[in-house]
Design brief:
By secondary structure, the chain is α/β, with parallel strands linked by helices. The protein contains 15 helices and 11 strands. The longest helix is centred in the middle third of the chain and has 24 residues, at 177-200. The strands form 3 sheets. Strands 3-2-1-4-5-6 form a 6-stranded parallel β-sheet, sandwiched between helices. Strands 7-8-9 form a 3-stranded antiparallel β-sheet, covered by helices on one side. α2 links the parallel β1 (34-38) and β2.
């Protein structure tokens, strides 16, 4: 394996199907589904992105003077309108849009949408088939529901943050992958898809309460199962899968790069020993003796520091050792496996993760770049039945920007 980001020309060659790396004539599995997104940052837009990636018509309601970042992948593949709910006609316009929609996504603290006159009681009365998605950290109820917080706080109270890090060292924030996106945005996307399917099956529209506390706890189901079974220690860095073992960890190479191994199963562990030339070392026979793990880890660390990352890739990559180089975000899009699968795509020259998962009969269309804020306002309102005069009145009042 050889990784080299190269120049912009080389980047474009990675994606032969067009500027997005995907066919743009496809419509996607969720074509015909309309989602109204109350603009925000983080997990809510991420959930909307996942739906938009697969063909949903996502209409983003932005605030006047909203924050626009054209490189933001979570804002891709939707349309944009600016509505001010505090100006005459703004709330009525929002209600009209929601009458034409299948779903709504909002990420305010509990009670904010109700105070605006846009709570679920109002919007579900207008449109009983509406799926009302609510994205919060603490959830819609509970003693912390109205408190401020961020990803690290939400995963702290579910035991997840406690589990991440080295033994005897402080917990390590796993960026905001677990709370905001895995336990937040992705959970909401699943909830929206499930409730939308329910509506198609004759069930009523409803509220989806997606809390990052709930989602991060759910992601830790395996660890909680192991804790109950006595096979998982409630101390970070002491388990086979959290860096405690010698056979499931990352190691530094001679050039300062890192590699990862996960030789858990006996046959994979045996192959690792064979590849590293330690098959005859009796100390490594004690694979599952936890007391031996620290010493065995030191021995493996000394071995891996003898060669560069590239050299270890040449020896181990593609084998059943369960091995991969630890790539930076600048390197990852150019790994041969990621190129072959088009795991990353170029959208207006910006490399970003491609839509996932993959569907055999209805592949995702090529992502579109994030729209300019408010670029589609008049067209969106016309589709909702607004006359030219009514649109002009909304502009005059400041409700439409």
């Amino acid at each position: 394996m050889r990784i080299a980001p190269g120049n912009g020309g080389e980047r474009r060659q990675l994606h032969p199907l067009g500027p997005s790396g995907k066919r743009t004539d496809l419509v996607g599995l969720l074509s015909g589904i309309r989602i109204i997104e109350v603009g925000g940052i983080g997990p809510g837009p991420f959930a909307s992105m996942m739906l938009a990636d697969h063909g949903a018509d996502v209409i983003s309601i932005q605030r006047r003077g909203g924050y626009f970042v054209p490189q933001d992948a979570s804002s891709r593949s939707r349309r944009s309108i600016v509505l001010d709910f505090k100006r005459p006609g703004g709330v009525e316009a929002m209600r009209a849009l929601c009458r034409t929609a299948d779903g709504l996504i909002e990420g305010f603290r509990p009670g904010v949408m109700e105070r605006l006159g846009l709570g679920p009681e109002v919007l579900l009365a207008d449109n009983p088939r509406l799926v009302y998605g609510r994205m919060t950290g603490w959830g819609q109820f509970g003693p912390l529901a109205n408190s401020a917080g961020h990803d690290i706080n939400y995963i702290a109270i579910t035991g997840v943050l406690h589990a991440v890090g080295r033994r005897g060292e402080p917990p390590v924030p796993p960026v905001n992958f677990v709370g905001d996106f895995g336990g937040g945005g992705m959970l909401l996307a699943f909830g929206m898809a499930a409730a939308l399917l329910g509506v198609r099956m004759g069930k009523p529209g409803q509220v989806v309460d997606a809390a990052m506390t709930d989602g991060s706890a759910l992601l830790a189901a395996m660890c909680y199962w192991g804790l109950a079974a006595g096979t998982y220690h409630d101390e970070r860095g002491t388990n086979w899968c959290d860096g405690g073992s010698h056979y499931y960890d990352t190691y530094e190479c001679a050039d300062g790069g890192y590699i990862s191994i996960a030789s858990w199963e006996p046959q994979f562990y045996a192959l690792l020993r064979e590849k590293l030339g330690i098959a005859g070392d009796p100390e490594f026979d004690a694979q599952q003796e936890e007391a031996r793990w620290p010493d065995l880890k030191l021995k493996l660390a000394a071995i891996f520091r003898q060669r560069t990352r590239e050299e270890w890739c040449g020896l181990l990559e593609g084998s059943d050792v369960c091995f991969a180089p630890v790539l930076s975000m600048s390197e990852a899009p150019f790994h041969p496996h990621n190129i072959a699968r088009q795991t990353f795509v170029a959208v207006d020259g910006v490399i970003q993760p491609a839509p996932a998962p993959r569907f055999s009969a209805t592949p995702a269309p090529g992502p579109r770049a994030a729209p300019q804020i408010g670029a589609d306002g008049e067209q969106i309102l016309r589709e909702a039945g607004f006359s030219a005069e009514r649109i002009a009145a909304l502009r005059d009042s400041g409700a439409l920007a």
